[in-house]
Structures are given as structure tokens and as C-alpha cells.
Amino acid sequence: MKALLWRDLQLAIRAGGGFGLSLAFFLIVCTLVPFGVGADGGQLSRIAAGILWVGALLSCLLSLDRIFALDHEDGSLDLLATAPLPLEGMVAIKALAHWLTTGLPLVICSPVLGILLHLPGAAYPWLVLSLTVGTPALSMLGAFGAALTVGLRRGGLLLSLLVLPLYVPTLIFGAETVRRGLMGTEVTTPLVFLAGITFATLALVPFAAAAALRVNLR
Amino acid sequence: MSIWEYANPVKFLRASGIVLPWIVAGAALCTVVGLVWGFLTPDDYRQGATVKIVFLHVPAALMAINAWMMMLVASLVWLIRRHHVSALAAKAAAPVGAVMTLIALITGAIWGQPMWGTWWEWDPRLTSFLVLFLFYLGYIALWEAIEDPDSAADLTGLLCLVGSVFAFLSRYAVNFWNQGLHQGASLSVAPGERMSSVYRYPLYVSMLGFFLLFLALVLIRTRTEIRRRRLAALLAREHRA
């Protein structure tokens, strides 16, 4: 398991692995929004939390098809499927690797982009906390979508259509946490729901994704 | 004699062929009676004539949700017992359910404009219907994208299971996210909260009509899918010979 995680991380970080691409995409989304809605600071700071969450979600989406597609092309997915490691564990490790190379950098960079969008000071801890808690669920659900579409030639667009509706609850609770943290109202409820979604996906989605992979490798 | 006998495509075709004309006739009768009767009801004292859109809006919304439930059950039957008719029925129900969702959304918008003064509001009910529509689109697109019919049935079945969980979650998440304009349940068992029987009875007829319409459409589409599958098998055999 460790070896697989290490391999995936190295593949992602080395040249051509697309590491940093989603980070750059996140930056571009957050740069484009002020052009679209106007540079008014007050307005920006009101919508900043939502933009950061939507941006994180979109940039996470961008790299999803890489989770299984490359391994499927060169045949290493078949090897992994026949390896002694259960397929469920393999899916979980690959989603973890995706989170470490996409989700975690997004979490770390989000405060900097928050400055760009005039995010009010009180919101920063809640932004980082909610993204840390929520993004693993995005990677996990994305792994399920990637497993569904792995054998398809033009899976990329379909993947977004399948995965985005699944992201709705995570987005709602994540953005709600930041908004409530900003207003100083009670934050525990959305945060607990967000954590609940993350843990439930961590526990259950590997089984669904592994089942989809088995069908696609048949 | 058990219901599983109808998992045999031949038996299914024969039985559905017998009941289908009756269901179609019933659907036509009930929708026409329900909608015409609904149209002839007196205007509501507050909403005026716009109240009559309820006879289209509520049954469509009802069937939009029930179609997804039916797809969920059919997908489970396919994943557990591997009856092909079940998978094809789930496939057949999806576009019908999507259109029902769209009808509910559009009639809701037309109704919302004079009542709430807006075509669209990010109200929990409206939003969760939009999300449901997106789920339908993804499901249909996945069926279209995969060539091998058995893998397609497996993968869409999985998507339907996971999607159901998240559709429910979204329903409660949007409740949490925004309080809405939409009224609560239209049909309540508690007396006093119910709408007047002038509107209630045509609504029941219309709901029955939409249910039968859905049933008829799904049966027709399932029969078409079975025949298409047969045709493909025949052509493949021809090709090999």
C-alpha cells in the first residue's frame, strides 16, 4: 500500500504528471471572477467564500480522470487488480494520492487567494478547516466517477456530468461553514455534517468504485 | 407463480402486451378527465386561474421522484438477481423521469411568475428538483456512453445507488442552506390543512392518470429495448454465420 502511494505521488509530481496544473487553474478561476463581477471590494468579500469553494471543486474535477486513466492505458491497472492488495484498498490509496497532490495544495493556497478576493479576516480559519475536512470527500467521489468512466474514450466531459451533482451536499455544507463562521453564528452543525459526509464516503465509496472498476476490467 | 417469472423476456412481452392497451386507455382517460375537470374548477379566491396549473405540476413532480425510486429498485434487482428486463426497465424509465422533472420545473416557473413575482428562486424544493434533473442527465449520458450492454447496466446501476444517497443528501442539505417560498406538502392527511375538495378530487384523478401514463411509457420503452436487444443478437448471429 505504501509502495503504491509512493509510486502515485512520484508519478504525479514528476514532469508531465500535471502537478500544479489544478493549482494554476484554481488561481485562474479566482482571478477571473473579479473581472466578471467587478472589482468592488465589498461585493467580492461577500462572495469570496463561495468562489473559493467552487474554485476548489472545479480544480479538483480537472485532474480526476488521471486517477485511473493512465494506469488503464498502460495496463498497470490490470496488474494492480490482480495484486494481493484488495481493489477497495487500491481505490482508497489512489484517492488519497489524488488528495495529497490536488486537495492538500488547494487547502494550503486558499488563504493566499482569499486575500486576492478580500475574504474578511474572521473567515480564514473556517475556510482552511472546511476545505481540509471537505476536500477528501471530493477526491473520493471523484475516484468513483473516474472508475465508472475509465474504459470510455471521451470520458472527461461525462465524468464532470456524473460527479458534479454528487458534489452538491459537500459544497453546500462547506460553503455554509465558512459563511456562518464569518457571521459568527453557530458553525458546528454544517461542519459536523461535512465531516460526516467525508467519513461516510471514505468508508463506503471505495466499495462502489471497486465494483465499477471490476466491471470495467471484465 | 411468482413475480420473478416476468423476468423472462418472452413472458414479460406477452403479459405486458395484454395489459398495455388497458393501461394506455386508463392513462388517456384519467389524464383527460383530470385535466379537463381541473380546468373547469372555479378560480381560487387568492390565486385566481393560476391555481389550475396544480393539476399538471403536482402529478409531474410526484412521478419525477417516483420514477427515480423505480429506477433504484430496478437497478437493485439487476445488481442482485441479474434479470435483464429489470435493467432495461431502469434504462427505459430514466428519460421519462427526466421529462417529468422538466415539466415540474417549467410549470413551477410559470406558476411562480404571477404568484411569487419570479420565474426562479433558489428555494429548497426547486433547487433539489434541479439537482434531481442533473442526476437524471448523468444517468442517461452514462447509458449512452457505454457500448457493452451488460457493463452499461452494471455501471448505471451503481451510479443509481450512489446517486440516490446523494440525491437524498442534497434534498436535506438544500433545506439547511436556504429557507424557501414553496409551500409544504400539498396533500396532507390532517383535516383542516387540506386543500378544498373542489381541487382535491380532480388532482387525485390527474395523479392517477400521470401514474398510468408513466407506467405505459415505461412498458412501451422496455418492450422496445427488449426487441432492440433481440435484433442486435440476431444481427450478430447473422454476422458470424
From TrEMBL, chain A:
Keywords: Cell inner membrane, Cell membrane, Cytochrome c-type biogenesis, Membrane, Transmembrane, Transmembrane helix, Transport
Location within or outside the cell: Cell inner membrane
Source organism superkingdom: Bacteria
Protein name as catalogued: Heme exporter protein B
GO molecular function: heme transmembrane transporter activity
Signal sequence range: none
Primary gene name: ccmB
Family recorded in the similarity comment: Belongs to the CcmB/CycW/HelB family.
TrEMBL record, chain B:
Domain Cytochrome c assembly protein: residue ranges: 4-182
UniProt name for this protein: Heme exporter protein C
Source organism of the structure: Paracoccus aestuariivivens
Keyword entries, A-Z: Cell inner membrane, Cell membrane, Cytochrome c-type biogenesis, Membrane, Transmembrane, Transmembrane helix, Transport
Residues that span the membrane, as ranges: 12-40, 60-80, 92-112, 124-143, 155-174, 201-220
Family recorded in the similarity comment: Belongs to the CcmC/CycZ/HelC family.
Record's keyword annotation contains Lipid metabolism: no
Protein's gene: ccmC
Subcellular localization(s) per the UniProt record: Cell inner membrane; Membrane
Signal peptide: none
Membrane topology reported for the UniProt record: Multi-pass membrane protein
Coarse class of the protein's main subcellular location: membrane
